[in-house]
Design brief:
- By secondary structure, the protein is of the alpha/beta class.
- The strands form four sheets. The chain has an eight-stranded mixed sheet, sandwiched between helices. It has a five-stranded mixed sheet with strand order 1-9-8-3-4.
- The protein has one domain (63-408): Ribokinase (UDP-N-acetylmuramoyl-L-alanine:D-glutamate ligase), CATH 3.40.1190.
- Helix content is 33%, strand content 18%.
- Helix 4 (175-184) runs parallel beside helix 5 (202-217) and helix 9 runs antiparallel to helix 11 (369-389).
- It has helices at 40-47, 94-105, 119-131, 175-184, 202-217, 237-248, 258-265, 271-281, 336-348, 358-362, 369-389, 400-408, and strands at residues 20-21, 65-68, 72-79, 85-92, 109-112, 114-116, 139-141, 147-150, 161-164, 189-193, 221-225, 253-257, 285-289, 295-299, 307-311, 319-321, 327-329.
Length: 417
């Protein structure tokens, strides 16, 4: 994105209804809404595919990744030499970031979404092109680009956002376009991250579900990140949770942050209980990112019990690692989860010539010992990629070479001041 520093004197000139803080308010329900099923019959019913979904043929063998969703401009908080607050515009949005993260590691990646023809949309399009992301699925429209102002956050804390998104370009996808894309292209995986766009947008939700259903019928596995921005949700907590859980049934992987789970299920929710609930809905893998504590993956081996593996970052806050594997201070946490997701998808698709886990995700193959060992390696590499990302301002995922160097290097245990 443009390196120009933009001073923002206030938001008085912007529509107040569009400025929403993504994490500032978490109106928790009195009790968790995502409970475990009451009995075996309900569990069995949840595991059955929807009647409208075609039988799955098994993994297609392709490595290409399709990422669907928004692309926007993040305005990152900075301070001028004179001590004044200002904002630096950077290309972003969760799906956009996942595209960059996976592409830099070496996956063939295609972005499916709407981009404006305004100056911000031109920059987003050019940025994706420079990174080598496929753009043949992009819809160019005259609507404005979404803008997201990022608040300052303590090390390891969730970033806060204010979105300006009314009638934006990233809300132009339709069911028909999604059907055309899934019929004309074969992908190894399809990933959706929400954010400023939520499942409350009926047109977008219909497009997303169509893409997921038809891509699964073509041999792709699907990955879904709810990426909760609480104040983007207008229909109410309970209604949105039900909508979200319905969509989870179309995903083979659910990737969520611990903050997402706190919003959906309450502060006291146990990750194991939430993962088991989601696995009962149909996914084959649930991955929860936990900020400075790394990530944990839940799955069911052949005996159908709940099992997990986890990966921790190479260092602890306030340290992280840079691309050389050296301990350095955390710059900010923008895009950390998206970088982890990109690394996860790269590994699951067999990036770098390693074994693919598509048979477990799209073909119903068992999580045997070899698959679990592979999953552990994939998770560790994804967490390391996120650790490198937070050593740099904004979302700036590592290349495959940088990640390999960092993984091969023992990070310093000294001070990162």
């Amino acid at each position: 994105a443009s390196p120009t520093t933009l001073k923002v004197l206030g938001s008085a000139g912007l529509p107040a209804s569009t400025a929403r803080d993504g994490r500032a308010e978490r109106a928790m329900p009195a009790k968790p809404l995502l409970k475990r099923p009451a009995g075996a019959a309900e569990m069995a019913a949840r595991k059955r595919p929807a009647a409208s979904e075609a039988p799955r043929p098994g993994p297609c063998g392709h490595q290409a990744l399709c990422v669907v969703g928004e692309a926007l401009i993040d305005f990152l908080p900075r301070t001028t030499k004179d001590g004044e607050s200002c904002y630096l515009p950077k290309a972003g949005g969760s799906p956009f970031n996942v595209c960059i993260a996976a592409r830099r590691l070496g996956l063939p990646v295609h972005f499916f979404g709407g981009l404006s023809t305004d100056l911000f949309g031109e920059e987003l399009f050019a940025h994706l092109a420079r990174e080598g992301v496929g753009l043949e699925l992009v819809q160019r429209v005259s609507r404005p680009s979404t803008l997201a102002f990022v608040g300052k956050a303590a090390a390891g804390a969730d970033v806060k956002y204010a979105f300006f998104k009314e009638n934006s370009a990233d809300r132009c996808l339709t069911r028909d376009h999604a059907a055309q894309v899934s019929q004309a292209h074969t992908f190894g995986a399809v990933h959706l991250s929400l954010g400023a766009v939520t499942l409350e947008d009926a047109q977008m939700a219909e497009a997303f579900s169509t893409l997921f259903r038809q891509s699964r019928s073509m041999g792709a596995f699907t990955c879904f990140d709810p990426n909760i921005r609480a104040n983007m949700i207008e229909t109410g907590h309970e209604a949105y949770c039900k909508t979200l859980e319905g969509f989870i049934a179309l995903a083979d992987i659910v990737k969520a942050s611990d903050a997402d789970i706190e919003f959906l299920c309450g502060e006291q929710a146990k990750l194991e209980d939430v993962a088991e609930r989601w696995l009962d809905c149909g996914p084959r893998l649930v991955v929860v990112t936990r900020g400075p504590d790394g990530a944990i993956a839940f799955y069911r081996p052949a005996d159908s019990t709940l099992a997990s593996c986890s990966a921790a970052p190479p260092t602890r806050p306030p340290c992280t690692i840079d691309a050389s594997g050296r301990a350095v201070p955390v710059a900010d946490t923008v895009g950390a989860g998206d970088t982890c997701t990109g690394g996860l998808l790269y590994g699951l698709l067999g990036g770098g010539g390693a074994a693919s886990l598509a048979p477990q995700l799209a073909g119903g193959a068992a999580w045997d010992a070899a698959a679990v060992l592979r999953l552990q390696d994939v998770l560790a590499a994804a967490v390391a990629a996120a650790a490198i990302n937070v050593s740099r301002p904004g979302c700036d995922p590592p290349s495959a070479k940088e990640l390999a160097t960092a993984l091969a290097t023992t990070a310093s245990t000294g001070s990162c001041d």
